[in-house]
Amino acid sequence: MRRSVREGQPGFRLPPVILDGPPAIGKTHWARRLGDLIGAGTTVVDATSEAGSFGIVGCQRGWSGARPGRV
Description:
By secondary structure, the chain is mainly α. The chain has one domain (2-57). Helices cover 30% and strands 0% of the residues. The mean pLDDT is 75.
């Protein structure tokens, strides 16, 4: 937050972050809490259920079933 203020940015900026670690250490809780505190929406992407990055960047399922990604 100090960096955002120091650089004169109009709001809080946080670069993309990947939280990595063993199960049940609070990664999801931390991310949701941070989103609540800064007033931003949150979306949880369970990387263990994704077959690849298709769900995030977009997926083309055949010639008629393309759909946009979550981000």
